[in-house]
Amino acid sequence: MAEQPQTQMFSTFPNPPDFLWKEFTPDKIARFDEAKQAWEEQNPDAALSKTVTLIPDLPDDLSCLQPPPEPPNGAWRALAGVWTLKDELPSLEESGIQRLKPTSNGVSVSPPDSNRDRALNLKRLTKSVLLNFLEFVGVASIDPDGTAEKAEDIETILINIHHACNEYRPHQAKEKLIQTMQTRLDQIRNETAAVNAVTDKAKRVLEGLGSIAAAGQERPDLEGRGEGQNGAVDDPMAQEEDQLWNEAVAFV
């Protein structure tokens, strides 16, 4: 009988790196924590620093447990892009895109121009997109192969619109934070007012109950107080006691 071929097992995803389960053992983690604590006790100033500081003279078998240092130039490449530690919005000129809206960086402008409205610039760019799209349709109806230039113009305008919106993000975040804090402040004020109202009501009830002869005394009867028409009590003191009693019952 022929030997049966062995069935090979294939995984959808590759196996994790070996150092994840070979190096990060409880024993090595405990040794690394001890070495880190001892080094921080000897260098308190460096331990308080926010930057990642490498522990010198660390054994080779514990080197994988130490986080890597920050890039020396503050930038690194990942996923086909360059990333920086300081998150800044690059300008259109740095990205190689033509700027279509006016700028005040390095250019002397008059006071009215320095207070330009971003919303007005966005409206102008939006109208320019519509106009260029109509021109694109007109060119495409005559010469379909000659639409590349208009397509590039539309792309440039859209990138300028996107960049203008991104420049407005910090202001948008500040306004959102102000709105959130104001909403929370109003909520706290309303809660405080409600607590104060209940506290005042409780004080009034307790002060009224304090005028009663004994705590827990049942409601006194109305005999001898003089009832008027429809069973109403004519004695003002009795009316006040009845009102306090009703408030106490309603509060409880």
Automatic annotation (TrEMBL):
Manganese among keywords: no
Gene3D superfamilies: 6.10.140.1520, 6.10.140.200
Annotated Polar residues bias: 101-113
GO CC annotation terms, alphabetical: core mediator complex; mediator complex
A single GO BP: regulation of transcription by RNA polymerase II
Pfam family, one: Med7
Key words of the record: Activator, Nucleus, Transcription, Transcription regulation
Record GO terms (molecular function): transcription coregulator activity
Compartment annotation: Nucleus
Region (Disordered): 95-115, 216-240
Entry keyword annotation includes Transcription: yes
Subunit structure: Component of the Mediator complex.
Matches recorded under PANTHER family: MEDIATOR OF RNA POLYMERASE II TRANSCRIPTION SUBUNIT 7
Protein purpose: Component of the Mediator complex, a coactivator involved in the regulated transcription of nearly all RNA polymerase II-dependent genes. Mediator functions as a bridge to convey information from gene-specific regulatory proteins to the basal RNA polymerase II transcription machinery. Mediator is recruited to promoters by direct interactions with regulatory proteins and serves as a scaffold for the assembly of a functional preinitiation complex with RNA polymerase II and the general transcription factors.
Family assignment from sequence similarity: Belongs to the Mediator complex subunit 7 family.
Designated name of the protein: Mediator of RNA polymerase II transcription subunit 7
Organism classification: Eukaryota, Fungi, Dikarya, Ascomycota, Pezizomycotina
Name of the encoding gene: MED7
